[in-house]
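We both want to read discrete structure tokens more fluently, so let's practise on a single case. Would you write everything just below, so we can both look at the same thing?
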Amino acid sequence: MPSLVVKPSGRAIPVTQGGTVLEALRRAGIELESPCGGEGVCGKCRVRVEGPEGVPETPHRLLPAHEAREGWRLACRLVPEGDLTVHLPPDALLDARILEGERLCAGRLAPAARIVAAADAWHLEYEGEEAAELPGWQPGTAPKGVAVDIGTTTLVVSLLDLATGRELATASALNPQTAFGHDVLSRIQKGSTREGLGELATAVRGVLNRLIGETCREAGADAGEVVDAVLGANTTMLQLAGEFDPAPLGRIPFRVGITGGRSYPAARFGLDLHPAARVYVPPVAHAFVGSDISGGLLACRFFEREGPLLFVDIGTNGELALSAGGRWLVTSAAAGPAFEGMGISQGMRAAPGAVEAVHTEGGALEVRVIGDVPARGLCGSGLIDAVACLLRAGALEPSGRMLRPGEARGLLDPGFAERLVERDGRPAFRLAEGVFLTQADVRQLQLAKAAIRTAVDLLLAEAGTPPSDLREVVLAGAFGYHLRPESLEAIGLLPSGLSERVAFAGNTSRLGAALLLVDGGARSKLAARMAETRHLPLPESHTFQDAFVQNLSFPA
């Protein structure tokens, strides 16, 4: 059996016969970027290799010639026939930066889970459920609850004291399912077999239980004191965590297997809580509009505020909601992974070394890098900023075509013009030493922003609401905190004139889950509101395709 020596640690790990380097690294707990799930089409899982007889295997077509000569190979395509030394890229050793937001503070305190004494025993009374006995419950112990946000890329767990409504601790981590692909469709495909579904469920449950343990240790509590949990997640993540067959989510007509607006035994989701604990799943509106959105609408008081109000959660799958004219509409848009830095030539997560913001100051380009370290790549917020800056400077045409170096002379500020170069015969823009925005990157962003903008346009058209009538645009999700409204408007993701009406709501999925923990009555109210909310299926609109094509262009 071949073995790998992993540099820079020097650790030796085995490789199964016929297995790839990527599979061996994953088994050893070493994660590489692999948005395509190891299918060999994204080109992200690069490693530099050497063996006793030199560099093995034929280079992959996605590897530039100079990298191939230096010994770089794709880990997902490399099947060792003998021992190898593998040099990892720096980002394989780094976790993504996850915004956890501020501590939560409850308003109305009436938790769905209550501990009561009855007939010399302790019982758990749970909203809408039959009371359950709690053997071994210690008098004076405050019941706890966990608000869980299962994101496609990240996991966040908050521990709350249900007696006071106070948040005690929060912990976060990458979703380990990213090893099987960064988009939900890759995971639906993986989870469509019994073995694959079990593998995905086991992976996410293991990390969730670790995070629950971390929050309990920080708070001086025990996981056995946790009697309630609320899960905010997109529909695919919910079904994978609960081991519901995800296959019907991936084909027309899309069918949801999990029932939202109800509770389940904690064991159904593999959570190590009190044996009597329940897990509540907020309402699920559609195969691509999950409990994270219904909880998020609760968190930003979507149903109570005077409209028109637009709610947007930007990500691989963008979810949107509109309150206008006494109507509530929701929809989703398959934006792809560009907003998370995936599918971008030097894209990466929001980790140290990622360019996260780009703007001009006195005519000069200013670039902010996470961690104050040399730039290594570009994350989603930096990508949007960079394209917005190039559009304003005239280095990008409304069609998305980037000027070549020779075309820029006399048209652009010299500081911009000197950053335009050619790489592999195509125009590119140097953001920092060794980090470039390419023409292909711009095309990927055009596809992503066109999907979101088309969803915005069709929602507004369905409600008969002009963009100018919107009172507020709420950007949800941790990613939204890093976005500049003026950049979103500059690239045309938002209609003109709305940048000053943008409000940032943060991780509304987590906040909504916490509110549903401490206010049991909010569950029935939210279910009633979501029952009155209509899902707008965008692909069925006869104007969808034309609108999408039109929105590929940037504003003139």
Remarks:
- Confidence is low (pLDDT under 50) at residues 93-106.
- Residues 406 and 420 are 9 Å apart (CA to CA).
- The first strand starts at residue 3 and ends at 7.
- The chain is about 25% helix and 25% strand.
